[in-house]
Design a protein that fits this description.
Layout lengths: L1 H40 L8 E2 L3 E3 L4 H15 L3 E7 L5 E10 L12 E10 L2 E2 L6
Helix pairs in contact: 1-2
Length: about 130
C-alpha cells in the first residue's frame, strides 16, 4: 500500500512539473508573438507616414511586416517558427508563431511532441505631445 501511494505521488509530481513547463513554454511563445507583432507594427516606411497635427498615420505592407518579423524571430528565438505575419488593414501587424513542446520528465516514458501556437496583433501608436515635453 505504501509503494502504491509513493508511485501515485510520483505520478502527480511528474504531472505537475510537466504541466508547469507547458504553461511556461506557452507564456514564452506568447511573449515572442507579442514582441514580433510590435516589431511588425514598427516596420513602416517613415517616408510614407502622414502627420495630421496630433497623430502620425502609418501605412504597413505585408512584405514589410513579414520581413521585419522573420528577421526578429530568427534572431531572438530558438525553436520558434513563424507561421504568418501580415497586416489585415495596413495599420495593424498580426503575427502567429509556433513551437514544439515535449514534457521534460514524462518524455522518457511517453515520447510526445505537442505543437503550441500563439497569435498577437499590434499597432503603431505615435502621438504628438502637446504639453511641451
Amino acid at each position: 500500500m505504501v509503494a502504491g501511494l509513493v508511485a501515485l505521488c510520483g505520478v502527480v509530481v511528474v504531472g505537475i512539473i510537466d504541466s508547469t513547463d507547458l504553461a511556461l513554454a506557452r507564456t514564452n511563445l506568447q511573449s515572442t508573438a507579442d514582441l514580433a507583432a510590435l516589431v511588425g507594427a514598427e516596420s513602416f516606411d517613415p517616408l510614407t507616414a502622414k502627420f495630421d497635427g496630433t497623430r502620425l498615420a502609418v501605412r504597413l505592407t505585408n512584405p514589410q511586416v513579414r520581413r521585419a518579423v522573420r528577421t526578429f524571430v530568427r534572431q531572438t528565438s530558438d525553436g520558434i517558427r513563424l507561421v504568418t505575419a501580415s497586416t489585415p488593414d495596413s495599420a495593424t501587424a498580426r503575427v502567429t508563431v509556433r513551437s514544439a513542446w515535449s514534457p521534460p520528465l514524462a518524455s522518457q516514458f511517453l515520447p510526445v511532441h505537442i505543437q503550441i501556437e500563439a497569435t498577437a496583433s499590434a499597432r503603431a501608436n505615435i502621438v504628438a505631445r502637446t504639453d511641451g515635453g
